[in-house]
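Marked as duplicate of an earlier ticket. Keeping the data here for the record.
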Amino acid sequence: MTWQRLETIFNRSISLSFSKVKCLLMFLALALCGLFSVICRAASFGASQWMVMSLTFLPIFLCSGILLAVGLVLTRLYQAEIQEKKESIFQIFRSSKALFAGIPYLTVPLIFAYLVLWMVLGVFYLLREIPHVGNALGSIFSFGPFLLVFGSIFLGFLSLLTLFFVTPAAAREEALKPKLAETVLGQIRKNPFFSLVMLLIGLAPLLIVSGVLSLATLMTHFLYIGGGSSFTIVVRWFFMMLPFCAILTPAVIFLFNFASETHVLLEEKNRAKA
């Protein structure tokens, strides 16, 4: 792949990220994800550390399923735009019903794995509460919670890989099958460096925009939101979340567009090696 081709697909992915229909659909999806996050954040007020961890990571896996469903539609729409086919978003929705039914094959295993890690972490919290020896045992076995939290973060990273690499492959299928993830993983193993570089390029706009938005959110929290009742803080978070999602929308659409281009390039590289 030449630098000129990379520049072409990057520019094309950006130029097709500002469609009104795409932006509206993605904004609604992000707003729903944001609503889940706000609800979980509100539920974490006054909760134990164990419950706070659950309410921190669980929205990630729930939102990945929503974004995967929307990503399938956007990817099919992007592929139609490249091929200059006139397909409405409603036609794509109707033709993607079988794909939507298969989304649990990809999301449920990650949620189940996380719940297992979370329940095992609860054992360490109980161990720490044993009278007299709890603190000592908690200190000795502190590596356990560390590994469990690391595993939860890793599962979140797997969700991101699923959105970037599996979504464009699934968009070309009639129905989602469990073996699809294995096929995509095989493609990544054949070209790990190329896959990682393309992932970082696809994430670059999202990381930059979300970084700036997160900084603005923190400053707003300290300078304006401050204290107050839990209900007041949650309401402020909700209305602050809406423009956050709106500004983030084009960057997420670009991620799916660039993922579609990456999938095509990976297939070309694998065919060339074969």
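See parent ticket for discussion. Residues 3-273 form one domain.
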